[in-house]
Amino acid sequence: xxxxxxxxxxxxxxxxxxxxxxxxxxxxxxxxxxxxxxxxxxxxxxxxxxxxxxxxxxxxxxxxxxxxxxxxxxxxxxxxxxxxxxxxxxxxxxxxxxxxxxxxxxxxxxxxxxxxxxxxxxxxxxxxxxxxxxxxxxxxxxxxxxxxxxxxxxxxxxxxxxxxxxxxxxxxxxxxxxxxxxxxxxxxxxxxxxxxxxxxxxxxxxxxxxxxxxxxxxxxxxxxxxxxxxxxxxxxxxxxxxxxxxxxxxxxxxxxxxxxxxxxxxxxxxxxxxxxxxxxxxxxxxxxxxxxxxxxxxxxxxxxxxxxxxxxxxxx
Length: 316
Hints:
Blueprint lengths: L2 E11 L7 E6 L20 E4 L9 H5 L5 E4 L2 E4 L9 H5 L5 E4 L1 E4 H9 L2 H7 L2 E5 L7 H13 L3 E6 L5 H8 L4 E5 L5 H8 L4 H11 L5 E7 L7 H11 L5 E8 L5 H6 L14 H12 L4 E4 L2 E2 H11 L2
Parallel strand pairs: 2-8, 8-9, 9-10, 10-11, 11-12, 12-13
Antiparallel strand pairs: 1-2, 1-7, 3-6, 4-5, 13-14
Helix pairs in contact: 6-8, 9-11, 11-12
C-alpha cells in the first residue's frame, strides 16, 4: 500500500491552477527559502506546532517530555529545538491542544476519497487537483500513484514544483500531468544558494528539459525586494525563458510576510527581517520587462496590462 505524508488538503483553491481546485500539500522540501510561505512543509516528517494562545500552563508537556526539551521560561513552556526529537509525546499530553501535530500519513485511497468529493466543482469550473508542498516530487511513488488515479477519473492534474528533483522523475511525472507551476527564484546560482540552500543549476536544467515536453508550464516568480526585484534580473530571466519552447507564461507573485507568525509556532528563525512588500511600480516594471521578451505575464493572477491600468487610474 503506497502512502505519503501531507500537511493539508485545501479545498476551493483558486490560485493554484485553472478553475476551482483541491490542493494537496506534501511534507518535505529540498529547499529552505528564507521567505517560504509554508515553513511547515520543510521537514519531511510530522512535527509539533505550538499555539501560545491555547496554552493553559498546566505543565504536563514539561513533565512528560522524554528528552527534557521543554522548560518554563517567563511563565510559558518553551521548546529547545536542539533537544526536541519530534517524538510528539507532548501533543498527546496537552489537554488544551496547544501543541498539535502537523503532517499525517495517508494512503493513496484516502487522499483520493477526499479529492473525489470535489469532482462536481471541478466539472463546473474547469478545475482539478494541484499537488503542492513542500515539494511533491520528494515523494515519487505517492505522487505518481495519485497522478495515475486522477487521470483515470479524468481530473485535471497540476504539479507545483521547485524544479529541484531528479530529471528522470520530473519527465516521468510529466507524462501524467496537465500543467506545471514551476518556480524560478533567481538566475544567479550563488545568490540562489544563499537564499534557498541549493544552486539553481538543476532547476534551470530541469526547466529546459521539461519545456521540450508537450505539457503546459507556468513559471512562478516571487518578487522579493533586495533579492530579485531589479529590471536587470528580469532581463536575465526573460532572456533565458524565451529560449524555452514550452514556456510563454510567467506569474509574478509579490512577496509578503503574513506567514511570519508560523515560524514562531514551529520554533524556526525568520531570516528575512523587516522587508516590506515590493513597490507596485517596481513589479509593473518587471512585468513590462518580461513582456518585452514575448512572455505573457500576470501579476498575482491578473494580466499585467489590466493591473497596470487599474493602478494608474487609482494614483493621485
